[in-house]
Amino acid sequence: MICKEIPNNLKSMRSKTIEEYKKTLILSSRQKEILTGLLLGDGHLETQNRGRTYRLKVEQSLRKKEYVDWLFHEFRDFVRTEPKEKEKTRNESRTKNVGFSTLSVGNFRFHAQQFYQGKQKVIPKRIEKFLSPLALAVWFMDDGSQKSSLHRARILNTQGFRKQEIEKLIHILDKKFNLQARPRNQKDGYQIYIAAVSADRLKQIVEEYVVPCMRYKL
């Protein structure tokens, strides 16, 4: 990807200058594919002006910093500051995460309209068109895993979506990528269970895009 040349003082720009800079931004086809994968996974779009503009928020555990840095590079022309580390406390347990937020821009509005109903994530009606090998790879890096060290099946953590939406995704994985999968019921919702027989096929599709720190998932 060829990024727009970013002013060295973007972080310290005045608001008017930033608004002028945002007008020059263009979301590339590659960035759109990555954004699709992120929104199927852990990525979020937020608006503070009733949907006029949106910002992308990315956050992962600190051990996945290489992946966050890769995403930061891919969206570099939309971001003012480099990824930052933060510590969170949950149920008396502390974790360290790393992430970044983009500028709030109109470029993300289309994806927000496709992937959200209010604040709830949904699967777009046209997801078959949007789901490319790169998007699948980002989705898998975000929310994928091995079932266990003793089993070749792969899991996509889709518990935030409705079962009907998950079944639609499974149909597309079969139709578009020849991946055998089924819903897997969990306490917090349904996962997508990719059969062991499709593990090599999945690896073949996504391997070229997977960053080194995420290759353990393959």
Automatic annotation (TrEMBL):
Residues 32-200 form the Homing endonuclease LAGLIDADG domain. One of its GO terms (biological process) is photosystem I assembly. Pfam families: LAGLIDADG_2 (PF03161). It comes from the Bacteria. InterPro entries: Chloro/Mito_RNA_Process, Homing_endonucl, LAGLIDADG_dom. GO terms for molecular function: endonuclease activity. PANTHER family: PENTATRICOPEPTIDE REPEAT-CONTAINING PROTEIN OTP51, CHLOROPLASTIC. This is Homing endonuclease LAGLIDADG domain-containing protein. It comes from Candidatus Lloydbacteria bacterium RIFCSPHIGHO2_01_FULL_49_22.
